[in-house]
């Protein structure tokens, strides 16, 4: 109809009618008003993107096969981790100052094997079932740990009792709406105290393909990517929860993996299938921690001196800046 109208206008001597463009050059799927049509077009666009990416990948592979030994080295993909902003507090293993600090800090008696870890695990006041089960399972992971349920007793009264009974660490599990959401770790008798936000808690029965119950053997401890001075302190806090001499016959491993300042905890059992193949089986529980503050001394929310506090508006200025 438009072509006929345009032709008729030209025959009559008038200016030709402009041809209407269905979609402007800058059109995007988000401009489609109909929700179902927009979703359908978005799926088609994603499918097309995947096809183009796969075709480009096949093309590159064929080019590399054709070049053989003359092929250029594979490009290293850019990730947030390998583009991390350099932190001036990154620990050098050969630094004499770091070695002196580690020899004189609050955890030195543990690493010198002068003390044996003894852990008290407690909760917020009147915990619900999920938090109770989590504490019981955590006690099977950490050797020589004891669960005590608070009944309105303040932490300031619990800490002197811990010191008197030779406990080396206090773990407090906080909850919100029946879900564990916080962990306070305090080293006795002189601190420090770390406050973590807890998320992604999975109990043993919620883990797929889980193994049998853990044994009473002392597990190995793996600490990954704790590179800065702050991360080093936090890693030493976790290490001091477990006895220094692991029992390898139990084949159990507790892993604290730091990635982008999130600390992922996993508990596994490994099985040697052959000289080269090793199978691992998750035992649980699993959870994720995010450091909120590190405080000198034992828990004191009113007059405590803080070594480090996470301030989102000031610290989270770049996605590639990490503190642990």
Automatic annotation (TrEMBL):
Question: What job does the chain carry out?
Answer: May be required for ribosome biogenesis.
List the Pfam families: Brix
Stretches of Gly residues bias are at: 1-11
- List the source organism: Neopipo cinnamomea
Report if keyword rRNA processing is assigned: yes
Q: Does the keyword rRNA processing apply?
A: yes
Record's keyword terms, sorted: Ribosome biogenesis, rRNA processing
Q: What name does this protein carry? A: Ribosome production factor 1
């Amino acid at each position: 109809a438009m072509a006929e109208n345009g032709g008729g206008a030209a025959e009559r001597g008038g200016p030709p009618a402009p041809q209407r463009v269905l979609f402007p050059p800058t059109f995007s799927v988000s401009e489609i008003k109909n929700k179902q049509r927009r979703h359908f077009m978005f799926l088609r666009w994603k499918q097309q993107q995947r096809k183009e990416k796969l075709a480009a990948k096949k093309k590159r592979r064929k080019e590399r096969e054709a070049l053989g030994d003359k092929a250029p080295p594979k490009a290293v993909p850019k990730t947030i981790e390998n583009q991390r902003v350099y932190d001036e507090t990154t620990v050098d293993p050969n630094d004499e100052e770091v070695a002196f600090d580690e020899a004189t800090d609050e955890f030195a008696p543990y690493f010198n094997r002068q003390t044996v870890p003894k852990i008290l695990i407690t909760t917020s006041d009147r915990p619900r079932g999920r938090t109770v089960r989590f504490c019981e399972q955590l006690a099977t992971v950490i050797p020589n740990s004891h669960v005590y349920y608070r009944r309105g007793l303040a932490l300031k009264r619990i800490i002197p009792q811990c010191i008197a009974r030779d406990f080396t660490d206090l773990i407090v599990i906080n909850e919100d709406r029946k879900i564990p959401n916080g962990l306070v770790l305090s080293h006795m008798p002189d601190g420090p105290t770390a406050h973590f936000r807890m998320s992604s808690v999975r109990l043993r029965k919620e883990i797929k393909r889980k193994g049998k119950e853990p044994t009473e053997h002392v597990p190995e401890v793996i600490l990954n990517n704790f590179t800065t001075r702050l991360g080093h302190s936090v890693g030493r806090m976790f290490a001091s929860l477990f006895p220094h001499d692991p029992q390898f016959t139990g084949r159990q491993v507790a892993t604290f993996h730091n990635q982008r300042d999130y600390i992922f905890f996993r508990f596994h059992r490994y099985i040697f299938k052959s000289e080269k193949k090793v199978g691992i089986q998750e035992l649980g529980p699993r959870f994720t921690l995010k450091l909120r503050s590190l405080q000198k001394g034992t828990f004191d929310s009113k007059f405590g001196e803080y070594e480090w506090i996470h301030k989102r508006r000031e610290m989270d200025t770049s996605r590639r800046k990490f503190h642990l």
